[in-house]
Amino acid sequence: MSKTPLFKNYIHDWLQSKEGYVKESTYSNYSHVAFNHILPSLGDNDVNVIDEDLLNHTAAHWLMHIPLSKNSVTHMMMITKLSLNYARKKISLPRIKAKIKLPITEEQNRFKIMIPQSKIKLIKAITKNLDSRNIGILFALNTGIRIGELCALKWCNINMDNNIITIEKTLQRIHLQDGYGTVTNKIVITSPKTKSSIRDIPISSHLQKSLAKMGAYAPDTYLLTGTSKYIEPRAYRSYFYKYLKTNQIDKINFHGLRHTFATDLIEQGADVKTVSELLGHANVNTTLNLYVHPSLAQKRKCIEMLSM
């Protein structure tokens, strides 16, 4: 007996088809989006009635009423179309090539960067009492490293002779959810999602001096603990927020340190291609869209060129 062509009747099969063929963290993301967003929004619809209009309506709902960022909605719609085309193939329908057009909204969750006074205060506090936990904050400010990459970083990834840091792993807690609502959690340490995230970052002279003060650690120990035991991102975020509060520094998300690093470089005139590679972005357009916003003074200078 063939299945009723309700979308929800094919989601589990699609997830099973991906298990073992994508990274565990990717599968975790697929299952999270499927069970928490796709099924509640579209699961009770017949596969053959889910068209471009319905997908755009769903995307607008996720953007405006949950609300989610445009990047998140775009990513979730990619997963929706993958699973939908799997279902359409099962009932002999052609692939759907829906173009998702998100409504214009005010810029959501504009990233924050540290103001110079706070940055100076933070660096002074860290260098006054340098330890394995605090050095990670300096790393983020001087390299733009992601928190998962930082938590996975070992001393063997730090070449003090050549002043190079090699980013090749990321650590994250993933949530695996089955069709019965059971969620399991686990820590995974894997290679980054994209090849561009595997990169070498030069160590600045300021960071090199701080690392030299740390002394020698066994190569296989983690930077943030000085032992063979890691600290996971949510625990390190909690430590970071407490550290800011203790030192009376305005709160900023840990990812804001990465934004601060990139913004400082762009404002100092660094070329975008180099900044993009330091950040491990998949392409330079990501860097351009996030960080390159000409000031009014730059626009005036550009317009004045016409008078020369």
The CATH homologous superfamily of the largest domain is called: Intergrase catalytic core
- Helical content band: 40-55%
State the oligomer: single chain
β-strand number: 5
Overall 3D form: globular
CA radius of gyration is 23 Å
Let me know the average pLDDT.
Answer: 90
Q: How much of the sequence is in beta strands?
A: 5-15%
CATH class of the largest domain: Mainly Alpha
Structural domain count: 2
Characterize the main sheet.
Answer: 3 strands, antiparallel
**H/E topology pattern:** HHHHHHHEEEEEHHHHHH
Q: Which structural category do the helix and sheet elements fall into?
A: mainly alpha
> First CA to last CA: what distance?
78 Å
- As for the CATH topology of the largest domain, it is hpI Integrase, Chain A
Read across the widest sheet, the strand sequence of neighbours is: 1-2-5
Low-confidence runs: none
